[in-house]
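Posting this for the archive.
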Amino acid sequence: MEATLQSPIGQTMLEKSLVAIGHAPNNQLVVIDPNTSPYHAVLRSTEQGYTITDLGSAHGTFVNGRRLAPNTHHVLHTGDQIGIGETMFTYEVHDGKAMVVEQHINRKDTPVEAPYATEQNNYTAATVPPYTPPLTQSDESVTPAKQAPPSWQEYAPAFPPPYIAPGPPEAIPAYEAPPAKMGPGRWLSILLFVVAAVVALGGIGISAFLYLHPPLQPAITVTSDYKVGSTPAGAIGTVFHVSGQQFSNSSNVTFLLDGTPISNQRVVQSGANGNIKTDLAVTEAWTAGKQTLTVRDAQNNVTKAGVNVVIVPQGQANTPGPNGAPPDDMSYVMKVTIQRQDAQTGEQLKPWVQSILVTGRPDPAGGSVCQESDNGQPMTVSGDLGNGITYTETVVFQCSGTYKAGKLSYTETTTSDKMTVYEGGSTIATCESKSPYAWEQLEGTFSDRNTISGTYSSDSSTLVCSNGKQLTSIAETGTWTGTVASSTTTSSISYVTLDRIMLKWAKPEG
């Protein structure tokens, strides 16, 4: 069959039964581009028409977008699109004549099927099914099922003398340009080929380096003994437990909050395997609020995904208060001892022992502070004023108090105070306070998780009596200490008797 090969540099009549294609100069059809092998494919004239055979090229031979199996004959039909490297040919037959028209294309825009496994391209055969050519009568007649693959020597007549049998691509001798002067188009093609080859070799080198030395992708996990919702939380004096991997081996690492290095952090170094494991202490340098924790090693490898953490004031999120004080939301009973003295004379008075209830509340409210007697209900006690004079006193107490961040404040207020005075068993007067007054006030700070201490004070009070006299109590000052006795409330708290009051009869002024 007479065939015509159409290309940008002219028209060539194909008078031989074999047409070799590749970028080696002794092919009948020389295609210069970086994706073409030295001996890429061959066209062969048969009784059924031309066939095309891929000679185990690195980038493959495509017909109508389908990659051919190496060393397998494929019958061409008019209009078939043949892809070799980045060049597309159209096979046409007119009036019994066959021609191939060359068209340059960008093969990146052409979808191709996965390559076949060969010794040349090193693809894994298990990942792509073997190519099965269409079962047409013409194909079966050309390539029987068990026909041995063609060899390079079979196509020896296709190459002009002197013929050099090609070996593997790296064994092919370098091409030396003939002394004949080439046109500018040919020089440009060769220059483009050289540039493409250099770029390709550079890309192969970079790919090989990255394969042998893949970039590190550090990652960390962070846990804490405290949480806000599901987010790890911490306060000054607590730690975050940090572990990580894929850092540079034996490298100092830097911890960052929202991308800024944390100041005053101790030096942490990754192990010989690139892993880290440490407890990261929260200090005054940490800003309260939600932040993102990342880690960077000395080679500037940074964790791509940070971990969210929440920094809270001491005592919140069930963290210890300052000096390890109880958390703000903790409920407990505290045993208190008060050392009292007369505010005016400094005379030491009998010590007091009582129980204080601290009831934790959700953040950020802190705890409330009261005594069991601070319930707004009347309480009556009896006492002796001396000289045969006795009394009964009925008092109503209310409380106000807070506990937060290791500090306690408590005020017990007498909202009603009434007294009946007796002499020889007979009532001689009834007395009543005209206004509320502070029965006691406590201010204190924890020095550790169980111990608190502070100051005590009590207001002076005056009760006006029905016989024209007054009963006056003295003002008191002092100190107190407390110890956390229980984490639960108790109903066995005894009311403190009113013997703290030094009552004195007095006439109204004026």
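Helices lie at 137-142, 184-212. The chain has a mean pLDDT of 79.
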